Please model this.
Amino acid sequence: MDWFKMSYTLFGGLGLFIYGITHFSESLQSMGSNVIKKAIGFVTDKPILAVLTGLTITAVVQSSSVTTVMLVSFVNAGLMSLTQAIGAIFGANIGTTITGWIIAINVGKYGLLLIALGVFPMIFAVNSKWKAIGKGVFSLGLIFFGLELMAMAFKPLRTNDSFLTYLTMFSADNLPSLLACIAVGCGLTMIVQSSSAMLGITIAMAVSGVISFQTAVALVLGENIGTTITALLASMNANTAGKRAARAHACFNVFGVVVMVLLFRWYIPFIEWLIGGAADRILQDGSKPNIAAHIAASHSIFNITATLVFLPFVKHLARFVTWITPEPEGEEISTLKFVGGVETMAPEIAITEAKQEMMKMSRIVDKTLKLTSEYIIMDKANEKIAGEVYKHEKITDNIQKEITLFLHKVIEVSLSPEQTTRVNSIIRTSDELESIADYCESLINYRKRLFEIIDKFTPESIMILSEYLKEVHGFYTKSMNALDSKDFSLKKYRDEYGKLGEKADKIREIHLGQINKGKYDPLSGLTFSDIMVALRRIKNHSLNIAESLSGGKAAN
Model:
């Protein structure tokens, strides 16, 4: 037996398979990005809708690990409850079984044909939709061709006595052997960190006649446990809520496998009866034509059944993972960190996560503006409020930096023109939000000048500042509506911007008049001017946000 040839054929086929799965996922995301965005919006406390959401996203992304990491990150950021995430995780487990059915289609010999059909539109098509379709067909060809190569690599093992003797330890015909198969499937999936890749290897081994149907099913059960490692590793940097979501995924899969171990001796005959045609029927060339469909069916039915059984107990599972993952004293409920890297998430999901972080940043800036408004019109210094503004300014600095670094990595991935536009918009908006927080800090420092020398603004000046602050704050609040509001009008917003500018000019004239009348001492007059300049800048940055989110040009 030529072990070297078998090894490079196996790993070459595996490489083509993984590359095909990755790019097939990217093409589906490019065509279904709107589906992902809408699906995320449907995540509610209703378990059925949460399950459908997880199923839909995973069907498009073709990776339950990617979906689960996204859900962990949303829980980590406080954008989704634990029970919502658990329901979506259930759906993700069902959605990932679609990969098995794609692999099970017995068209391996047509892999090269699909590659030939897909490569030309992928490279030469001008329309992005046709490019995505071509990429999808090309990637599907790589999946089938890679699977065919892996099956070819395994064929010599059917006649190798040493391997067959070793394989009897993993026949899954008794409890120790069944547990050994599950452990092998789990361990290899943890190493590869791709249940799809391990499923491909399992089906290739089964189709080539190297392993039996029940051995393949036992390996798939182990792969269901092993796939949870990606989310568990990603959650290491998450807060308690994020860790709970990742552990809920692991607990669900482990509990499901434990139940299936108890039912295994009846489950195999049930699949045989349900699908029809003996799974282990062998042709003259040694291959098993029926086994791939049987494996895909066993994978799907296992995950669907587990979801139906555990769905009524979502809250109980949430309480269990809360119990095993207590919250340390003094830990902040939600952190401002991304969970997982770009390499572990789909571009559409990465963009969605960045958008959620940006929205969280906008709420922090909104709170900062409120605190700043309170501080400006106070009669005496309040260090608690000033300290909160300083803290929020540092947080926005960190978030803006994280978003920018994260999205610059996303840009390196192949994105559609629409996705690129959204990435640039998020980067620009986060930069504008950070600038507004900077001016809030400046406003606090300007006002502190007068507190330090016990100087005060006149009641008239306080009233003018208070009114203008409210209008600027309201103007900022409207800017964020440009992201999702269908009623937002950029033209009307620009008109309001002009009116605010005119009002600032009038305030400046009143202010100069009061200085000429001697109502201001020099420091108070200078402070008032500095505050008005900062408020103008906040107004400008708010317009920049609205134009960035709605696709317009930034204000000068």
